[in-house]
Amino acid sequence: MSNKLSSSVPEDREVVLGILNNSEKALNKLYTGYFPMILQFILNNNGDEDDAKDVYQEGIIVLYNKIKSGNFELSSKLKTYIYSVCRRIWLKKLAQQSKKSNNVSDFEDVMAVEVDVEQHEEKDQQFEKMQSALTHLGEPCKTIIQDYYINNLSMQDICEKFGYTNADNAKTQKYKCLQRLKKLFFQS
Amino acid sequence: MRNEIELEGIIEDYLNGKLSDEELKKFEQLRLNDPAVDHKVVAHKFFLESLNDYALKADLKSKMDQMHGQIDVAALSKEVGPHPSFIVNLWRKNKAAVAVAASFILLTVVTLYSIQQTTQQSGSVELVSRELARIKNSQSSLIRKINSDNVTKNLKPANFGGTGFALTANGYILTNLHVVDGADSVYVQDSKGNSFKAVVKRKDSQYDLAILKIVDESFSPLSSLPYRLKQNPIGMSESVYTLGFPKDDAVYGEGYVSSKTGYNGDTTQYQVSIPVNPGNSGGPLLDEDGNIIGVISAKQNQVDGATFAVKSKYIQEALNSIPNDSLGKKVVFSKRNSLQGLSKSKQVNKIKDYVFMIKVYK
């Protein structure tokens, strides 16, 4: 029924194990393997290439988190799961833009993934809140917070990087930044 | 301020599990006693988790963006994107429906066809009389003219031709009705090339049989007939042969009875697998012992090797309709069959004098 997609698709088991082991190679295989399928779906349902990229990445994140949380059972094909998730996400987006989404052109089997997508949306809200909070935080706070909490730099490293006279000054600065970020995050 | 910073440092260490046992106990006590501290712990925990999730997702996104860069999106879009043409799009979208519809139609056609097939043999029957070619050899006519005493004979080539065989020694000949139907005049020609004028004595349209009588003065009665009419039906797979005139000379054909019924289950006929051509109509069908078992009458157009022959039983019926006194002394089918036990070639050699080419002018 679907057009034959030429790209090679990795083994499901290989992908799941790869993601559990943080293998970037497995992620790459996964990503390049199924993108054409989603591109085809989006392009044939009122979307463009950028839509396809966004939706597909969301879909991969859903799968990634599901695998990481240990909830993923290989009861269905990975392909079906990805397709269903992306389809759901895209149809919701279309509905939000109040574009027509009846007469969906389907290319693959579809399974029920509503719960997973909703969970993902909640998480996504947190993500966007954090993103916006960080954006509003401004420099140098943003970099300090990211270096300390995300890149796991020590206070000493940050002190040197930003040219603070001593670690205590850096600590105070970090504390102030964190308070502001928390405020932004919890208020929004 | 300083305390606040230290408190947060402790909370972080607590959440990250970096406190020593003693510090842990002390802090948990503090958390129990001071709701404000407890609240801070919960809030900070949630915040750190959110920040961690954000970090992971941002990391994943940046990786995916990198991977995305490796994909030739434009080329892929061309391949999988909707075709500019509306028709092609319609086809792609409704492939499944079209496939279902097509297979349904196919199934219906096949079913109808097979139903029709079981009730009716396909292909029509082609009567095997021969329309003689205009350029019929004038040379052979000349030879006949010399051989023949009768010079007044019609030398114009015949329009149609068929085969017939002698029923009696005194000149009664059996052929197919469709060979002589609508004829202005009929001539029969024996194996030596002599032509004799004949008249149609009896027509039997039900079985497609006709009986001719040679009325020519130059005709001298034949010696007694070598073959006899077999009354009992013959079984499938029995070997049979025929002699006919698809061309100016007699042609021998050999085959077997392939079915006890003819076209569309016609019980008055056999189906015989034997090569025949236009001109074979009216020829005798004989079994291996030289008994006449039928008359070649037709063949099926679209089926290989399906020739039909009227059963001998109906020849007898046709014969019975001729008044006895006109049959003459030498009654046709004696009980004795002089051909029995002879080889095919000897049988054919004897029979050929009793098989005639029927020439019809219309």
TrEMBL record, chain A:
GO terms for molecular function: DNA binding; sigma factor activity. One of its GO terms (biological process) is DNA-templated transcription initiation. Residues 30-98 form the RNA polymerase sigma-70 region domain. It comes from Pedobacter nyackensis. Signal peptide: none annotated. InterPro entries: RNA_pol_sigma-70-like, RNA_pol_sigma-70_dom, RNA_pol_sigma70_r2, RNA_pol_sigma_r2, RNA_pol_sigma_r3/r4-like, WH-like_DNA-bd_sf. It holds the Pfam family Sigma70_r2. This is RNA polymerase sigma factor, sigma-70 family. The lineage of its organism: Bacteria, Pseudomonadati, Bacteroidota, Sphingobacteriia, Sphingobacteriales. Keywords: DNA-binding, Sigma factor, Transcription, Transcription regulation. It comes from the Bacteria. Belongs to the sigma-70 factor family. ECF subfamily.
UniProtKB/TrEMBL annotation, chain B:
It comes from the Bacteria. InterPro entries: Peptidase_S1_PA, Peptidase_S1_PA_chymotrypsin, Peptidase_S1C. One of its GO terms (biological process) is proteolysis. It holds the Pfam family Trypsin_2. GO terms for molecular function: serine-type endopeptidase activity. This is Trypsin-like peptidase domain-containing protein. It comes from Pedobacter nyackensis.
